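Slide 14.
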Amino acid sequence: MSDWEGATYTEREVFYEEEFRWLLHDEVHAVLRQLQDILKEASLRFTLPGSGTEAQAEPEQEASLCLAYPALLRQDVNLKMPRNNQLLHFAFRDDKQWKLQQIQDARNHVRQATYLLTNRDDNYQFKTGAEVLKLMDAVMLQLTRARNRLTTPATLTLPEIAASGLTRMFAPALPSDLLVNVYINLNKLCLTVYQLHALQPNSTKNFRPAGGAVLHSPGAMFEWGSQRLEVSHVHKVECVIPWLNDALVYFTVSLQLCQQLKDKISVFSSYWSYRPF
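Slide 15: predicted structure.
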């Protein structure tokens, strides 16, 4: 029989007490410091100057984009129109920047998570497991929201895209039959150009306005002003942004650390079911 098997209930109780005290006084703070270091690196990814990124959709349709937190600084697009083979070129006006709310929101959530981790005296000691669990839940909520802002682009209706103002950011001005949308999806900056055509008043098509979507398909209809319009072609370009990929990795690692600490606390909670751990 091992010493542990022969230990009395009181001896085991003392052992778990000491282990749990060590967890609260030492390991919790070690994990918090590790989380702070990781989130510091994540924050740096949102503040470092971005570099130009190029991507091609098809030989006759290409785009060059420059993203620097939190704004899209430069965008050059060459687009060959399928209907008449006309080659269009349009670019961001020199005096314009387009702020990407997804990036701004993600960074704000990282800041809030960092604040939660550092908002206490250096000598502060956690007294209960419940206190640690509450902190981890709050930090994980902010990190999950930060990750979701990058992985879950907003769904927009076509009128919302038309009203966003992005279409007016280009020189020369875009033709009236084009709509443009830009968004983040995971580690990619996505540019979508919608080519439109007007539905005639005597059209036999059953007009059904499209709802919200991240990417609308040809055939989607909407009403803008006094016109009824339909999407005839969709052109999409995706540019990989390496620092966004880094940020997503940091979010995942941080969430795993939080969950591991919660799991350790839960082990003691199950042993002392009558205590507020």
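Speaker note: Confidence is low (pLDDT under 50) at residues 273-277.
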